[in-house]
Design goal:
Jelly Rolls, 2 domains, two-stranded antiparallel ribbon
């Protein structure tokens, strides 16, 4: 709701500015400016992820706040459009059952470590330092069954000396459970 209101305000402010200062461009110029402003506002609005809704997630004594992507819409957006991600934040994708899950770097602006986590909450696969320019040519899929995927800033896996089989501690209690069954 808040993101929606901020988006509307940004578009309204940009529209007023364009009509006040851009009227000399004519109708087509104003229309083009407004379309550009709307596209810019849509990508900028993704800065406002509400991390308060995240859950603590701990690996080898390191705790981060992970925003949980349960719905198809949340999973489709992922971290795309975000300008940066601090080292103590990430996104946890929750799937209904162990399977092979493809992730890509659509709309990403910084590299990620993609960590696949099994049903038993241990790391089963990882691809480190995945670059934004890999999209659309490449998509990344796990080699072993996973039920969760953690996307985090590149370098996290190496910095904290993580390895396959490490336990990832988190609880999904209290979430809507739109995907988790």
């Amino acid at each position: 709701m808040t993101r929606h209101l901020i988006f509307i305000l940004l578009v309204a402010i940009l529209a007023i500015g364009v009509t006040q200062f851009g009227s000399h461009q004519g109708e087509e110029g104003i229309r083009a400016s407004l379309l550009g402003a709307v596209h810019a506002a849509q990508s900028e609005i993704r800065v406002f992820i509400d991390w308060r809704a995240g859950i603590p997630l701990t690996i080898k004594g390191v705790t981060i706040i992970a925003r949980v992507a349960e719905t198809e819409e949340e999973q489709g957006e992922g971290l795309g459009g975000i300008w940066r991600l601090s080292d103590d934040k990430g996104m946890l994708y929750v799937y209904p059952r162990p399977d092979f899950y493809t992730h890509n770097m659509k709309d990403m602006r910084f590299p990620l470590d993609i960590i696949w986590i099994g049903k038993n909450k241990t790391i089963v696969d990882v691809i480190e330092n995945v670059q934004p320019d890999s999209y659309p040519d490449y998509a990344f899929v796990n080699d072993f069954l996973a039920q969760y995927v953690l996307e985090i800033s590149a370098g996290f896996f190496e910095k904290h000396k993580l390895k396959l089989g490490d336990l990832v501690e988190f609880s999904l209690e209290g979430l809507e459970r739109s995907v988790v069954q």
